[in-house]
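User:
Hi there, any thoughts?
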Amino acid sequence: MAATAAALRCCFPGSSGVGSGFVKPNSSRRGWCAAAVAAPSREAEPVSSLGHRTRVDFPILHQEFDDAKLVYFDNGATSQKPCSVMKTLDEYYRSYNSNVHRGIHALSAKATHAYEDARRKVANFVNAADSREIVFTRNATEAINLVAYSWGLSNLKEGDEIVLTVAEHHSAIVPWQFVSQKTGATLKYVGLTKENVPDIEQLKGFLSNKTKIVVVHHVSNVLGSMLPIEEIVTWSNRVGAKVLVDACQSVPHMPVDVQKLGADFLVASSHKMCGPTGVGFLHGKFEILSSMEPFLGGGEMIADVFEDKSTYAEPPSRFEAGTPAIGEAIGLGAAIDYLSCIGMEQIHEYEKELGTYLYESLLSVPNVQIYGPAPSQTVHRAPLCSFNIENVHPTDIAEILDLQHSVAIRSGHHCAQILHRTLGINASARASLHFYNTKDEVDTFVDALKATVDFLTDRY
Protein backbone atom coordinates (compact mmCIF):
# COMPACT_ATOMS: atom_id res chain seq x y z
CA MET A 1 0.00 0.00 0.00
CA ALA A 2 2.76 2.43 0.96
CA ALA A 3 4.56 1.66 -2.29
CA THR A 4 1.48 2.56 -4.29
CA ALA A 5 1.01 5.81 -2.40
CA ALA A 6 4.64 6.68 -3.07
CA ALA A 7 4.22 5.82 -6.75
CA LEU A 8 1.27 8.16 -7.00
CA ARG A 9 3.23 10.98 -5.39
CA CYS A 10 6.07 10.29 -7.82
CA CYS A 11 3.74 10.34 -10.82
CA PHE A 12 1.92 13.47 -9.76
CA PRO A 13 4.15 15.55 -7.48
CA GLY A 14 2.36 18.36 -5.73
CA SER A 15 -1.04 16.90 -6.57
CA SER A 16 -2.87 18.14 -3.52
CA GLY A 17 -5.93 19.63 -5.15
CA VAL A 18 -6.48 22.89 -6.92
CA GLY A 19 -7.06 24.96 -3.82
CA SER A 20 -10.08 26.91 -2.66
CA GLY A 21 -10.48 28.68 -5.99
CA PHE A 22 -13.19 26.20 -6.98
CA VAL A 23 -16.40 27.93 -5.95
CA LYS A 24 -19.78 26.68 -7.11
CA PRO A 25 -22.35 29.29 -8.15
CA ASN A 26 -25.19 29.76 -5.72
CA SER A 27 -27.67 26.91 -5.78
CA SER A 28 -31.37 27.48 -5.30
CA ARG A 29 -31.66 24.13 -3.55
CA ARG A 30 -28.93 24.41 -0.92
CA GLY A 31 -25.83 26.31 0.06
CA TRP A 32 -22.39 25.14 -0.98
CA CYS A 33 -19.46 25.05 1.42
CA ALA A 34 -16.67 26.59 -0.67
CA ALA A 35 -14.06 26.21 2.04
CA ALA A 36 -14.49 22.45 1.95
CA VAL A 37 -13.56 22.21 -1.72
CA ALA A 38 -9.82 22.35 -1.13
CA ALA A 39 -8.47 18.81 -0.89
CA PRO A 40 -6.41 17.91 2.17
CA SER A 41 -2.72 17.34 1.68
CA ARG A 42 -1.63 13.85 0.64
CA GLU A 43 0.33 13.44 3.87
CA ALA A 44 -2.91 13.83 5.83
CA GLU A 45 -4.60 10.99 3.96
CA PRO A 46 -4.70 7.65 5.79
CA VAL A 47 -2.78 4.99 3.88
CA SER A 48 -5.48 2.32 3.80
CA SER A 49 -7.69 1.49 0.85
CA LEU A 50 -7.04 2.58 -2.72
CA GLY A 51 -10.04 4.87 -2.39
CA HIS A 52 -8.54 6.71 0.58
CA ARG A 53 -5.17 7.03 -1.13
CA THR A 54 -6.43 8.41 -4.44
CA ARG A 55 -9.38 10.63 -3.57
CA VAL A 56 -6.99 13.44 -2.62
CA ASP A 57 -6.33 13.84 -6.36
CA PHE A 58 -10.02 14.63 -7.00
CA PRO A 59 -10.82 18.05 -5.49
CA ILE A 60 -14.49 17.88 -6.46
CA LEU A 61 -15.00 15.04 -3.98
CA HIS A 62 -14.02 17.26 -1.03
CA GLN A 63 -17.18 19.33 -1.00
CA GLU A 64 -19.94 19.69 1.55
CA PHE A 65 -23.59 20.59 1.17
CA ASP A 66 -25.23 21.85 4.38
CA ASP A 67 -22.40 20.27 6.39
CA ALA A 68 -22.86 16.87 4.73
CA LYS A 69 -19.91 15.51 2.78
CA LEU A 70 -20.56 14.75 -0.86
CA VAL A 71 -20.82 11.05 -1.70
CA TYR A 72 -20.54 10.72 -5.48
CA PHE A 73 -21.96 7.39 -6.67
CA ASP A 74 -22.86 8.33 -10.26
CA ASN A 75 -19.65 7.15 -11.89
CA GLY A 76 -21.52 4.99 -14.41
CA ALA A 77 -22.74 8.23 -16.00
CA THR A 78 -19.42 10.07 -15.75
CA SER A 79 -16.30 9.82 -13.61
CA GLN A 80 -14.53 12.63 -11.82
CA LYS A 81 -11.22 14.06 -13.07
CA PRO A 82 -7.91 14.09 -11.19
CA CYS A 83 -5.85 17.26 -10.84
CA SER A 84 -3.31 16.00 -13.38
CA VAL A 85 -5.97 15.92 -16.12
CA MET A 86 -7.21 19.42 -15.31
CA LYS A 87 -3.63 20.68 -15.23
CA THR A 88 -2.94 19.12 -18.63
CA LEU A 89 -6.01 20.77 -20.18
CA ASP A 90 -5.07 24.12 -18.68
CA GLU A 91 -1.49 23.80 -19.92
CA TYR A 92 -2.63 23.06 -23.48
CA TYR A 93 -4.92 26.09 -23.70
CA ARG A 94 -2.48 28.39 -21.91
CA SER A 95 0.78 27.30 -23.50
CA TYR A 96 0.42 25.66 -26.93
CA ASN A 97 -3.15 25.95 -28.15
CA SER A 98 -2.93 25.39 -31.90
CA ASN A 99 -4.45 23.23 -34.61
CA VAL A 100 -2.86 19.89 -35.34
CA HIS A 101 -1.38 18.41 -38.51
CA ARG A 102 -1.64 21.73 -40.34
CA GLY A 103 1.19 23.95 -39.27
CA ILE A 104 4.97 23.95 -39.17
CA HIS A 105 5.27 26.55 -36.43
CA ALA A 106 6.32 25.58 -32.91
CA LEU A 107 2.86 25.64 -31.29
CA SER A 108 1.31 23.46 -34.00
CA ALA A 109 4.21 21.03 -33.85
CA LYS A 110 3.88 20.71 -30.07
CA ALA A 111 0.09 20.29 -30.24
CA THR A 112 0.41 17.67 -33.00
CA HIS A 113 2.99 15.73 -31.02
CA ALA A 114 0.84 15.78 -27.86
CA TYR A 115 -2.30 14.80 -29.80
CA GLU A 116 -0.64 11.86 -31.54
CA ASP A 117 1.10 10.89 -28.30
CA ALA A 118 -2.36 10.62 -26.74
CA ARG A 119 -3.34 8.23 -29.54
CA ARG A 120 -0.29 6.11 -28.76
CA LYS A 121 -1.23 6.10 -25.08
CA VAL A 122 -4.73 4.85 -25.90
CA ALA A 123 -3.27 2.16 -28.17
CA ASN A 124 -0.88 0.99 -25.46
CA PHE A 125 -3.61 1.12 -22.81
CA VAL A 126 -5.82 -1.35 -24.69
CA ASN A 127 -2.87 -3.17 -26.32
CA ALA A 128 -3.76 -2.30 -29.90
CA ALA A 129 -1.40 -3.76 -32.50
CA ASP A 130 -0.91 -0.33 -34.10
CA SER A 131 -1.78 3.21 -33.00
CA ARG A 132 -3.39 3.67 -36.44
CA GLU A 133 -6.15 1.37 -35.18
CA ILE A 134 -7.27 4.11 -32.73
CA VAL A 135 -9.76 6.63 -34.11
CA PHE A 136 -10.66 9.61 -31.93
CA THR A 137 -14.38 10.38 -31.86
CA ARG A 138 -16.59 12.71 -29.80
CA ASN A 139 -17.65 9.77 -27.62
CA ALA A 140 -18.49 6.08 -27.77
CA THR A 141 -21.88 6.88 -29.30
CA GLU A 142 -20.24 8.52 -32.29
CA ALA A 143 -17.80 5.60 -32.55
CA ILE A 144 -20.69 3.13 -32.82
CA ASN A 145 -22.44 5.35 -35.37
CA LEU A 146 -19.20 5.46 -37.36
CA VAL A 147 -19.15 1.67 -37.60
CA ALA A 148 -22.88 1.47 -38.32
CA TYR A 149 -22.81 3.98 -41.16
CA SER A 150 -19.37 3.35 -42.61
CA TRP A 151 -19.23 -0.44 -42.29
CA GLY A 152 -22.90 -1.33 -41.83
CA LEU A 153 -24.44 0.49 -44.79
CA SER A 154 -21.79 -0.95 -47.12
CA ASN A 155 -21.88 -4.52 -45.90
CA LEU A 156 -25.44 -5.30 -44.87
CA LYS A 157 -28.38 -6.16 -47.09
CA GLU A 158 -31.86 -7.59 -46.85
CA GLY A 159 -31.88 -10.98 -45.15
CA ASP A 160 -28.72 -10.30 -43.13
CA GLU A 161 -28.94 -10.38 -39.34
CA ILE A 162 -27.56 -8.14 -36.59
CA VAL A 163 -27.40 -9.84 -33.19
CA LEU A 164 -27.68 -7.75 -30.01
CA THR A 165 -28.80 -8.35 -26.42
CA VAL A 166 -31.74 -6.76 -24.63
CA ALA A 167 -29.20 -5.33 -22.16
CA GLU A 168 -27.49 -3.02 -24.65
CA HIS A 169 -27.24 0.73 -24.15
CA HIS A 170 -29.41 2.77 -26.52
CA SER A 171 -26.24 4.01 -28.21
CA ALA A 172 -25.52 0.43 -29.28
CA ILE A 173 -29.09 -0.17 -30.49
CA VAL A 174 -30.43 2.93 -32.23
CA PRO A 175 -27.66 3.22 -34.90
CA TRP A 176 -28.31 -0.37 -35.94
CA GLN A 177 -32.04 0.31 -36.11
CA PHE A 178 -31.24 3.08 -38.59
CA VAL A 179 -29.05 0.71 -40.58
CA SER A 180 -31.61 -2.09 -40.56
CA GLN A 181 -34.29 0.29 -41.86
CA LYS A 182 -32.02 1.41 -44.69
CA THR A 183 -30.66 -2.02 -45.66
CA GLY A 184 -33.43 -4.49 -44.80
CA ALA A 185 -31.21 -6.33 -42.33
CA THR A 186 -32.95 -7.88 -39.31
CA LEU A 187 -32.25 -7.18 -35.63
CA LYS A 188 -32.24 -10.22 -33.34
CA TYR A 189 -32.21 -9.71 -29.56
CA VAL A 190 -30.77 -12.15 -27.03
CA GLY A 191 -32.87 -12.38 -23.85
CA LEU A 192 -31.97 -12.86 -20.19
CA THR A 193 -31.49 -15.95 -18.07
CA LYS A 194 -33.23 -16.40 -14.72
CA GLU A 195 -30.10 -14.90 -13.15
CA ASN A 196 -30.78 -11.65 -15.03
CA VAL A 197 -27.80 -11.90 -17.38
CA PRO A 198 -27.81 -12.11 -21.19
CA ASP A 199 -28.38 -15.69 -22.30
CA ILE A 200 -25.09 -16.67 -23.92
CA GLU A 201 -26.39 -20.04 -25.05
CA GLN A 202 -29.24 -18.30 -26.85
CA LEU A 203 -26.73 -15.93 -28.46
CA LYS A 204 -24.69 -18.90 -29.64
CA GLY A 205 -27.82 -20.48 -31.08
CA PHE A 206 -28.72 -17.29 -32.96
CA LEU A 207 -25.47 -17.29 -34.93
CA SER A 208 -25.69 -18.49 -38.53
CA ASN A 209 -24.39 -17.63 -41.97
CA LYS A 210 -27.01 -14.84 -41.98
CA THR A 211 -25.31 -13.16 -39.01
CA LYS A 212 -23.08 -10.31 -40.19
CA ILE A 213 -22.33 -8.46 -36.96
CA VAL A 214 -22.76 -9.09 -33.22
CA VAL A 215 -23.09 -5.97 -31.06
CA VAL A 216 -22.56 -6.59 -27.34
CA HIS A 217 -21.48 -4.82 -24.17
CA HIS A 218 -18.44 -5.95 -22.22
CA VAL A 219 -19.94 -4.91 -18.87
CA SER A 220 -23.61 -4.00 -18.43
CA ASN A 221 -24.29 -0.50 -17.14
CA VAL A 222 -27.42 -1.78 -15.37
CA LEU A 223 -26.81 -5.42 -14.42
CA GLY A 224 -23.13 -5.11 -13.54
CA SER A 225 -22.52 -8.41 -15.36
CA MET A 226 -19.67 -9.15 -17.77
CA LEU A 227 -19.95 -11.05 -21.06
CA PRO A 228 -17.34 -13.62 -22.24
CA ILE A 229 -16.19 -11.60 -25.23
CA GLU A 230 -13.44 -14.01 -26.30
CA GLU A 231 -15.97 -16.85 -26.59
CA ILE A 232 -18.47 -14.67 -28.43
CA VAL A 233 -15.74 -13.64 -30.90
CA THR A 234 -14.77 -17.28 -31.47
CA TRP A 235 -18.38 -18.31 -32.16
CA SER A 236 -18.96 -15.29 -34.39
CA ASN A 237 -15.80 -15.90 -36.41
CA ARG A 238 -17.02 -19.41 -37.24
CA VAL A 239 -19.97 -17.95 -39.15
CA GLY A 240 -17.98 -15.05 -40.60
CA ALA A 241 -19.61 -12.37 -38.44
CA LYS A 242 -17.93 -9.23 -37.14
CA VAL A 243 -18.10 -8.27 -33.45
CA LEU A 244 -18.48 -4.78 -31.98
CA VAL A 245 -17.90 -4.40 -28.23
CA ASP A 246 -19.23 -1.53 -26.12
CA ALA A 247 -16.46 -1.29 -23.52
CA CYS A 248 -17.54 1.94 -21.83
CA GLN A 249 -18.03 0.20 -18.49
CA SER A 250 -14.95 -2.05 -18.70
CA VAL A 251 -12.04 0.02 -20.04
CA PRO A 252 -12.13 2.41 -17.03
CA HIS A 253 -12.29 -0.42 -14.48
CA MET A 254 -10.14 -3.35 -15.58
CA PRO A 255 -7.31 -4.32 -17.92
CA VAL A 256 -8.68 -4.61 -21.47
CA ASP A 257 -6.55 -6.22 -24.18
CA VAL A 258 -8.13 -5.82 -27.61
CA GLN A 259 -5.79 -8.33 -29.21
CA LYS A 260 -6.75 -10.95 -26.63
CA LEU A 261 -10.47 -10.20 -26.94
CA GLY A 262 -10.21 -10.39 -30.72
CA ALA A 263 -13.23 -8.20 -31.49
CA ASP A 264 -13.26 -6.33 -34.79
CA PHE A 265 -14.41 -3.09 -33.17
CA LEU A 266 -14.32 -1.77 -29.60
CA VAL A 267 -15.51 1.60 -28.32
CA ALA A 268 -15.04 3.59 -25.10
CA SER A 269 -15.51 7.13 -23.77
CA SER A 270 -12.94 9.38 -22.11
CA HIS A 271 -15.33 10.89 -19.58
CA LYS A 272 -15.96 7.55 -17.88
CA MET A 273 -12.21 6.90 -17.45
CA CYS A 274 -11.25 10.08 -15.56
CA GLY A 275 -10.70 12.03 -18.78
CA PRO A 276 -12.46 15.05 -20.31
CA THR A 277 -15.87 14.99 -21.94
CA GLY A 278 -16.19 15.41 -25.70
CA VAL A 279 -13.75 12.71 -26.76
CA GLY A 280 -13.87 8.93 -27.07
CA PHE A 281 -12.29 6.33 -29.28
CA LEU A 282 -12.92 3.49 -31.66
CA HIS A 283 -10.51 0.62 -31.92
CA GLY A 284 -10.81 -1.22 -35.20
CA LYS A 285 -8.64 -3.81 -36.88
CA PHE A 286 -6.57 -1.90 -39.39
CA GLU A 287 -7.45 -4.01 -42.42
CA ILE A 288 -11.15 -3.47 -41.71
CA LEU A 289 -10.77 0.28 -41.15
CA SER A 290 -8.82 0.51 -44.42
CA SER A 291 -11.72 -1.09 -46.29
CA MET A 292 -14.34 1.29 -44.88
CA GLU A 293 -15.67 4.46 -46.50
CA PRO A 294 -15.36 7.73 -44.55
CA PHE A 295 -18.09 8.57 -42.07
CA LEU A 296 -17.85 12.38 -42.40
CA GLY A 297 -16.40 14.50 -45.19
CA GLY A 298 -14.20 17.56 -44.89
CA GLY A 299 -10.72 18.59 -43.91
CA GLU A 300 -8.09 16.17 -42.63
CA MET A 301 -9.78 13.01 -43.94
CA ILE A 302 -8.83 13.62 -47.57
CA ALA A 303 -5.80 12.79 -49.69
CA ASP A 304 -6.75 14.87 -52.76
CA VAL A 305 -9.86 16.86 -53.65
CA PHE A 306 -10.94 17.41 -57.27
CA GLU A 307 -14.01 19.14 -58.63
CA ASP A 308 -15.99 15.94 -59.02
CA LYS A 309 -14.38 13.52 -56.55
CA SER A 310 -11.97 13.10 -53.67
CA THR A 311 -9.56 10.47 -52.50
CA TYR A 312 -9.25 9.64 -48.84
CA ALA A 313 -6.47 9.46 -46.29
CA GLU A 314 -5.52 6.23 -44.60
CA PRO A 315 -6.98 5.43 -41.16
CA PRO A 316 -7.24 6.94 -38.66
CA SER A 317 -7.25 10.32 -40.46
CA ARG A 318 -9.97 9.04 -42.81
CA PHE A 319 -12.40 9.08 -39.91
CA GLU A 320 -11.32 12.30 -38.19
CA ALA A 321 -12.79 15.03 -40.39
CA GLY A 322 -12.32 18.62 -39.26
CA THR A 323 -10.58 20.02 -36.22
CA PRO A 324 -10.69 17.36 -33.50
CA ALA A 325 -11.09 17.78 -29.74
CA ILE A 326 -7.37 18.41 -29.36
CA GLY A 327 -7.16 19.47 -25.74
CA GLU A 328 -9.64 16.78 -24.73
CA ALA A 329 -7.65 14.04 -26.47
CA ILE A 330 -4.48 15.24 -24.77
CA GLY A 331 -6.42 15.25 -21.49
CA LEU A 332 -7.48 11.66 -22.15
CA GLY A 333 -3.79 10.83 -22.52
CA ALA A 334 -3.18 12.38 -19.09
CA ALA A 335 -6.04 10.31 -17.62
CA ILE A 336 -4.45 7.17 -19.04
CA ASP A 337 -1.14 8.17 -17.46
CA TYR A 338 -2.92 8.51 -14.13
CA LEU A 339 -4.77 5.18 -14.38
CA SER A 340 -1.63 3.39 -15.57
CA CYS A 341 0.36 4.78 -12.70
CA ILE A 342 -2.06 3.19 -10.25
CA GLY A 343 -2.31 0.01 -12.33
CA MET A 344 -5.50 -1.32 -13.90
CA GLU A 345 -5.15 -4.70 -12.22
CA GLN A 346 -5.02 -3.03 -8.82
CA ILE A 347 -8.03 -0.88 -9.72
CA HIS A 348 -9.94 -3.96 -10.85
CA GLU A 349 -9.17 -5.97 -7.71
CA TYR A 350 -10.12 -3.10 -5.43
CA GLU A 351 -13.34 -2.40 -7.31
CA LYS A 352 -14.35 -6.07 -7.23
CA GLU A 353 -14.06 -5.97 -3.46
CA LEU A 354 -15.85 -2.62 -3.25
CA GLY A 355 -18.60 -3.76 -5.62
CA THR A 356 -19.25 -6.88 -3.55
CA TYR A 357 -19.36 -4.76 -0.40
CA LEU A 358 -21.93 -2.47 -2.03
CA TYR A 359 -24.09 -5.41 -3.12
CA GLU A 360 -24.01 -7.10 0.27
CA SER A 361 -24.61 -3.84 2.12
CA LEU A 362 -27.64 -3.04 -0.02
CA LEU A 363 -29.18 -6.38 0.94
CA SER A 364 -29.63 -4.96 4.46
CA VAL A 365 -32.18 -2.45 3.12
CA PRO A 366 -35.73 -3.77 3.60
CA ASN A 367 -37.66 -4.73 0.47
CA VAL A 368 -34.75 -4.03 -1.89
CA GLN A 369 -34.49 -5.74 -5.30
CA ILE A 370 -31.01 -5.66 -6.88
CA TYR A 371 -30.80 -6.48 -10.60
CA GLY A 372 -28.13 -8.67 -12.11
CA PRO A 373 -26.18 -11.65 -10.78
CA ALA A 374 -25.16 -12.05 -7.16
CA PRO A 375 -21.38 -11.91 -6.62
CA SER A 376 -19.68 -15.21 -5.87
CA GLN A 377 -16.34 -16.95 -6.14
CA THR A 378 -16.82 -17.22 -9.90
CA VAL A 379 -19.06 -14.21 -10.62
CA HIS A 380 -17.56 -10.77 -10.09
CA ARG A 381 -19.98 -7.88 -10.54
CA ALA A 382 -18.89 -4.49 -11.75
CA PRO A 383 -18.86 -1.91 -8.92
CA LEU A 384 -22.46 -0.83 -9.52
CA CYS A 385 -25.90 -1.84 -8.39
CA SER A 386 -29.21 -1.00 -10.03
CA PHE A 387 -32.05 -1.55 -7.59
CA ASN A 388 -35.63 -0.80 -6.63
CA ILE A 389 -37.37 -0.70 -3.27
CA GLU A 390 -40.93 -1.94 -3.02
CA ASN A 391 -43.53 0.82 -3.26
CA VAL A 392 -40.92 3.59 -3.51
CA HIS A 393 -40.17 5.35 -6.80
CA PRO A 394 -36.44 5.38 -7.69
CA THR A 395 -36.51 9.05 -8.71
CA ASP A 396 -37.87 10.00 -5.29
CA ILE A 397 -35.05 8.01 -3.72
CA ALA A 398 -32.41 9.77 -5.79
CA GLU A 399 -33.85 13.22 -5.11
CA ILE A 400 -34.11 12.81 -1.34
CA LEU A 401 -30.64 11.23 -1.13
CA ASP A 402 -29.30 14.33 -2.86
CA LEU A 403 -31.30 16.98 -1.00
CA GLN A 404 -31.09 15.56 2.50
CA HIS A 405 -27.87 13.53 2.50
CA SER A 406 -25.62 14.89 -0.32
CA VAL A 407 -25.48 11.44 -1.90
CA ALA A 408 -25.43 11.50 -5.71
CA ILE A 409 -26.86 8.46 -7.49
CA ARG A 410 -28.84 8.08 -10.73
CA SER A 411 -32.43 7.08 -11.39
CA GLY A 412 -34.34 6.31 -14.57
CA HIS A 413 -33.88 3.76 -17.34
CA HIS A 414 -30.12 4.41 -17.72
CA CYS A 415 -30.44 4.45 -21.52
CA ALA A 416 -31.61 0.84 -21.36
CA GLN A 417 -35.39 0.90 -21.79
CA ILE A 418 -35.55 -2.49 -23.51
CA LEU A 419 -33.71 -4.08 -20.57
CA HIS A 420 -36.00 -2.43 -18.03
CA ARG A 421 -39.09 -3.64 -19.87
CA THR A 422 -37.59 -7.13 -19.94
CA LEU A 423 -37.12 -6.91 -16.17
CA GLY A 424 -40.75 -5.80 -15.84
CA ILE A 425 -39.96 -2.32 -14.51
CA ASN A 426 -39.97 1.23 -15.86
CA ALA A 427 -36.98 2.58 -13.97
CA SER A 428 -34.41 1.82 -11.30
CA ALA A 429 -32.00 3.59 -9.00
CA ARG A 430 -28.29 3.02 -9.64
CA ALA A 431 -25.27 3.47 -7.42
CA SER A 432 -22.02 3.17 -9.39
CA LEU A 433 -18.55 3.37 -7.87
CA HIS A 434 -14.99 4.04 -8.95
CA PHE A 435 -11.60 3.38 -7.37
CA TYR A 436 -11.64 6.71 -5.49
CA ASN A 437 -14.72 5.62 -3.53
CA THR A 438 -14.48 3.87 -0.17
CA LYS A 439 -16.37 1.42 2.01
CA ASP A 440 -17.00 4.29 4.44
CA GLU A 441 -18.93 6.02 1.67
CA VAL A 442 -20.90 2.84 0.99
CA ASP A 443 -21.87 2.75 4.68
CA THR A 444 -22.93 6.42 4.50
CA PHE A 445 -24.97 5.71 1.37
CA VAL A 446 -26.76 2.68 2.83
CA ASP A 447 -27.59 4.51 6.08
CA ALA A 448 -28.88 7.46 4.05
CA LEU A 449 -30.90 5.11 1.83
CA LYS A 450 -32.59 3.51 4.83
CA ALA A 451 -33.43 6.95 6.22
CA THR A 452 -34.73 8.03 2.81
CA VAL A 453 -36.98 5.00 2.52
CA ASP A 454 -38.40 5.68 5.98
CA PHE A 455 -38.93 9.33 5.06
CA LEU A 456 -40.71 8.51 1.80
CA THR A 457 -42.76 5.66 3.26
CA ASP A 458 -44.18 8.00 5.89
CA ARG A 459 -45.30 10.37 3.15
CA TYR A 460 -46.70 7.97 0.57
Remarks:
- The domain at 51-73+343-458 is CATH 3.90.1150.10 (Aspartate Aminotransferase, domain 1).
